[in-house]
Amino acid sequence: MPKKVFLSLKYPQLAIDMLKQAGFDITINENNNPIPQEELINICQEYDALLSTGSNKIDAHFLKSCQHLDIISQFAVGYDNIDVQAAKQFGIVIGNAPGAMTEATADVAFGLMIMVSRKMVHMHKTIEKGQWNHFIPTANLGFELDGKTLGVFGLGTIGRVMAKRCKAAYGMNIIYHNRSKNQEAEDTLNAKYVSFDELLTQSDVISVHSNLTEETKGLFDKDAFAKMKDSAIFINTARGGIHNEADLIEALKAGSIWGAGLDVTNPEPMQPNNPLLQMENVAVLPHIGSSTVEARNEMARMSAQNIIDFYKTGKIPYPVN
Ligand code: 8YV
Questions:
Q1: Is the dihedral of CA 160, 162, 164, 167 positive or negative?
Q2: Given pLDDT bands bounded at 50, 70 and 90, which one contains residue 321?
Q3: Which atom of ligand 1 is the closest one to the Cα of 79?
Q4: Atom of ligand 1 at shortest distance to CA of 75?
Q5: Residue 64's pLDDT is what?
Q6: pTM attached to this predicted model
Q7: Residue closest by Cα to atom 6 of ligand 1
Q8: C-alpha distances in angstroms, 308 versus 2, 19, 56, 118?
Q9: pLDDT of 191-228, one tens digit each?
Q10: How far away, in angstroms, is 76 Cα from ligand 1 center?
Q11: Is 154 helix (H, G, I), strand (E, B) or coil?
Q12: Using CA positions, which residue lies closest to atom 2 of ligand 1?
């Protein structure tokens, strides 16, 4: 009997082809709507493996109810939606797709930084509203990034590429705060390890690239924004839960920071009446960090390979637990 795999969304064709060619019996949630947890639990009773994504809540309740599953392969690098400890307890293997979206996500962080520094989203909106009238020498001013200081919060693979881009394009000074020192980044980018407080007080641009964990949840709050330069830009392309959105709105309104660029919000999706969308020095994107053909195909390949290898060898190439 072929093993049965449920795909919680219509993932790229590459994943579907790989699983089919390997002889799996697959079912796809063709309509692409997120399946509510209880419904997904019911569906999974009929399957051996699940190809999941960040919008599937795979908590202890889910895992207890689906403990017959052999493997859950996550179509993402982040797995903060999965209770990894509980999965271990129930003997369910968890895989993910690390590194697949490194360049793509760093590009979004880099793009947001430029968009915010020159108020590009707001400028675009003024034309749509018929407000491009005549030249005013002191209007529409942003600021330049050349020689400024980039503070990377979480210098892993994506943070490292963002730092590389900023160094190459603008000769920015790189400082970072991390769980551990990154010697390679120190050697090649002259990056300097600093405390969290130093990161806040010294950065002209702070870019968040860490995982969402108990330690990072809500870390960028009222107190953190108050310590930042009033000329600083806050960029988050990691997880919306790392910043406190109400505090961010207040900090921008009060002018205690200058601007913000977000690819992740809290909650997601962001509602259209969110005050951030009306602010001049803000750019918000709908979580498109990994939205390139290259990244999504690589995520498809890695997440399918995890399932294929698991049933072939008992081991997976990209394990989480
Ligand atoms: C996904 C991501 O778009 O990989 C991640 O962790 O945030 C994105 O690539 C999203 O999580 C959907 O699973």
A1: negative
A2: confident
A3: 6
A4: 13
A5: 98
A6: 0.97
A7: 78
A8: 12, 7, 21, 47
A9: 999 999 999 999 999 999 999 999 999 999 999 999 99
A10: 4
A11: coil
A12: 76
